[in-house]
Amino acid sequence: NAPVGRWQEGKDLQWYAKDKGTSKEEIALKRKEELLAVKKREADMMNRALAGATATDAVKEAMRTELEGNDIDPGAEHNAQEVQDEDQARRKRKESEKKKKEKKKKKKKKRKERERQKHEEEGARKHGWSSSSDEDKQHQRRRRRRLDS
User: Fold this and answer.
1) pLDDT digits over 6-65, tens only?
2) Exposure string (b/e) for 33-53, b if CB count within 10 Å is 16 or more?
3) Are 47 and 54 in contact (CB under 8 A)?
4) Where are the domains of the chain?
5) What's the rounded Cα separation, in Å, for the pair 73 and 78?
6) pLDDT of res. 6
7) pTM over cut 0.85
8) Contact assessment for residue 87 and residue 129, using Cβ atoms and an 8 Å cutoff
9) Which stretches of sequence are listed as region Disordered (predicted)?
């Protein structure tokens, strides 16, 4: 009954016989920590999808109150702060990129407007068009008078 072949490579064939934990309290604590980690991850994903932010302070506070009285790794809160700092830096980068894009769009729009005006002025000079709206109105009035008579 010895495992033969490559299929067992990297697999734990005695998983069913391993020790699952020493006490019920320890198992319950591990399960609670795991559930809280999953809740936090889901809240982070939802907030990122909706607003581009991480878990809110209310969620973090709820997690702290739920874990009060239990021995939990103190590095977990530090890791949460690092994640929050990274997300804040990412949001700032996005905002600065967005501002740069808007500035670039405005520049491009101004340049196009200047080019359009320049083109109109060149056309007016070449073909004798008037660039003033008052002159256009006067020309239309004269034309109507000629057609009416």
Assistant:
1) 888 888 888 887 776 667 888 888 889 999 999 999 988 888 888 765 555 656 666 676
2) beebeeebeebbeebeeeeee
3) yes
4) 14-55, 98-129
5) 10
6) 80
7) no
8) no
9) 61-149
Give the mean pLDDT of 124-128. 72
By the 8 A CB rule, do 72 and 33 touch? yes
Three-state SS string across 44-103, please? HHHHHHHHCCCCCHHHHHHHHHHHCCCCCCCHHHHHHHHHHHHHHHHHHHHHHHHHHHHH
Answer for the pair 130, 139: CB distance below 8 angstroms, yes or no.
yes
**Is the distance from CB of 67 to CB of 37 less than 8 angstroms?**
no
Taking a C-beta distance cutoff of 8 angstroms, is the pair 54, 87 a contact? yes
